[in-house]
Write a structure and sequence with these properties.
- The complex is a heterodimer of chains A (312) and B (298).
- With 312 residues, chain A is mainly α.
- Chain A is built from 13 helices and no strands.
- With 298 residues, chain B is an all-alpha fold.
- Chain B folds into 2 domains: 49 residues, no CATH class; 213 residues, MetI-like (MetI-like fold).
- Chain B is globular.
- The chains are: A mainly alpha (312), B mainly alpha (298).
């Protein structure tokens, strides 16, 4: 059957097929033309820089070599070795770990509790509360950092309250032990709205009839939360934890604006370290440090894809 | 950054009616305390906004005399007058607006074209092209800004507004939003026009784009927000005050005055930076939230 059709195919059938194939090629060309603006920006500002970051990290590129970035010396893994021996970089790694380990759970917990309260606890003014809790997400970080400095300086509005309690308020951002909590507080304040909105979307997808059936069977609120809501919400919980982890791994704006990494390097994140090395003209070193961020973010993203695959 | 299947978000609180059973007294008591707790949380959330408004309306002497006071002893708009009289401030404002305008326009064009192609065309290399969008979403900007800067220098765009705007004119999140939206538009609509002999560009511009309104609105908001609030990249590219955007100018002004911080001036600047976005947010909240929900990104 196959033989007869292929051999006995009349010319008139073959022609439209060929023209259809060239039509498909034409449509491919058009599709790529439509993609061109994005692809041009992607190649110049993402693809080449990602590869270049790796390349730079293996060289001694400095700010003075800018016009001629290919005339630098290849120094292998020296930058990476130097980073690991630099106590300041190790400190930045540790600080970034604190940002992630403290910031992520705090942000998630706040976002989750508020989403739960808005979704199940109240019947009016949900929109108003959601608007208020989301507003910090859209607030400009430079502006908010100025407010933080106004509020947390030695004579600021926060210490006004502390003074009313009869205590002497500290210089929050100037104290190596207190600066980090204040910087993290800004991160949490800026991000819990995102977590809340995502949790709210997840909660609204939890089928109501399962809850009602369990309630009829005598399951209390906590039991239902733990045994019905939480398991069904697992994909959202993973999503939010990954998004926030990626955010805090790259945290830059908050420490840069509030403390510039100080006092005594107590709030310098890896991203901020990268920026500081860049400022010193140490482009190779800076690239090596930034590549460390890329690796950490990629690892988290891969774990996320793994975890989400069974369900998706 | 990371992208996951878009969770559906319901904007109307549909379940309000469903859950409205006759409230017994036992139910009402916890609900009242919950409202109280939520109101307290809302108050804490809004506190920084209260501080910035009150601080910006306090006079220099007022802040000097009682730096920690929560309310102005006397309301004055003097700080705003001084702010706009600052040399450079109007330049920062104009620069910010110009960069945002270019970024939004670029995203509308690039995303509708690319999103349309990714959703409605079958072509060789489609997976590769979509992979590029995903890769662009995932690569952290902190990992690429050094080479980006080297490229910008070699393109001769350092210390120019074009250099600040260009990397953001085709944001992957915009393409992603448009692709998701375009996938939901039935093929029949486009096919009908194709049978009528309309060319591909005509189908795109006359049939597809008019249907893509909601996605275009979301992209406008998302890209405006990205451009207006962007900080690290303009900080790196802008080398002179003539190319500073508002956030960079504000940060520079406050750092220059490290020891004698003029909080009234700074806070009035903070308000000018925040206000356009907050006003947009109040009126177009739906699109802001859709932007987040669509991809789990900001």
């Amino acid at each position: 059957m196959t033989a007869t059709t292929t051999s006995g195919k009349p010319l008139s059938v073959r022609l439209p097929r060929r023209s259809r194939r060239s039509g498909a090629r034409r449509r491919s060309v058009i599709a790529w033309l439509f993609l061109l603006p994005f692809l041009a920006v992607f190649v110049v500002y993402t693809a080449i820089p990602t590869i270049a970051a790796l390349g730079f990290s293996l060289t001694d590129l400095r700010g003075t070599d800018l016009r001629n970035p290919f005339a630098v010396d290849f120094i292998g893994l020296d930058n990476y070795a130097w980073l690991l021996s630099d106590s300041r970089f190790v400190r930045a790694l540790g600080n970034t770990a604190i940002f992630v380990l403290v910031g992520v759970p705090l942000t998630m917990l706040l976002g989750f509790v508020l989403a739960l309260a808005l979704n199940e606890g109240i019947r009016r003014m949900r929109g108003v509360f959601r608007t208020i809790f989301y507003a910090p997400v859209v607030a400009n970080v430079v502006a908010v950092a100025l407010i933080w400095q106004y509020a947390f300086n030695t004579n600021g509005t926060v210490n006004e309250v502390v003074a009313n309690l009869g205590l002497a308020g500290p210089n929050w951002l100037g104290d190596p032990n207190l600066a980090m909590p204040v910087v993290i507080l800004l991160g949490v304040w800026r991000n819990f709205g995102t977590a809340m909105v995502l949790f709210l979307a997840g909660l609204q997808a939890v089928p109501q009839d399962v809850h009602e059936a369990a309630a009829l069977d005598g399951a209390g609120w906590w039991r239902r939360l733990w045994h019905i809501t939480m398991p069904l919400l697992m994909p959202t919980i993973l999503l939010v934890s990954v998004l926030l982890t990626v955010f805090y791994l790259q945290v830059f704006d908050e420490p840069y604006l509030l403390t510039d990494g100080g006092p005594l390097g107590s709030t310098e994140s890896v991203a901020l370290y990268t920026y500081h090395q860049f400022g010193f003209g140490q482009f190779g070193l800076s690239s090596a440090a930034s590549f460390a961020i890329l690796v950490m973010v990629t690892v988290v993203s891969i774990i996320q894809l793994r975890l989400l695959r069974p369900r998706a | 950054m990371t992208v996951v299947a878009p969770p559906e978000i319901t904007h109307d609180d549909v379940r309000v009616e469903q859950g409205a059973r006759p409230a017994t007294r036992a139910r009402r008591t916890p609900e009242v305390s919950l409202y109280a707790a939520l109101a307290a949380a809302a108050g804490l959330t809004l506190l920084p906004f209260l501080w910035v408004v009150s601080g910006s309306l306090r006079s220099l002497d007022d802040i000097r005399a009682a730096p920690g006071a929560w309310l102005p002893s006397e309301v004055t708009f003097d700080n705003f007058v001084r702010l706009f009289a600052l040399p450079g401030f109007s330049t920062y404002l104009v620069n910010s607006v110009a960069v945002a305008a270019v970024v939004v326009a670029g995203n509308l064009v690039a995303a509708s074209a690319a999103g349309y192609a990714l959703a409605k065309f079958d072509f060789a290399g489609k997976r590769l092209a979509f992979g590029a969008v995903m890769a662009a979403l995932m690569v952290p900007y902190t990992a690429t800004f050094v080479p980006q800067f080297v490229i910008t220098v070699n393109l001769g765009l350092v210390d120019t507004l074009a250099g600040i705007a260009l990397p953001s004119v085709a944001l992957p999140i915009s393409i992603f939003i448009m692709r998701q939206y375009a996938s939901a538009i039935p093929d029949e609509l486009l096919e009908a026009a194709r049978i009528d002999g309309a060319g591909e560009f005509r189908i795109f511009s006359r049939i597809f784009v008019p249907l893509a309104g909601p996605a275009l609105a979301t992209i406008t908001i998302v890209s405006f927000l990205a451009a207006w609030n962007n900080f690290i990249w303009p900080l790196v590219v802008a080398q002179s005050t003539s190319t500073y955007t508002l956030p960079v100018g504000l940060a520079a002004t406050s750092q220059a005055a490290q020891n004698v911080t003029d909080y009234g001036l700074m806070l009035s600047g903070a308000i000018v930076v925040m206000l356009p976005v907050l006003v947009l947010f109040l009126f177009l909240q739906r699109y802001f939230v859709q932007g987040v929900a669509a991809t789990g990104l900001r």
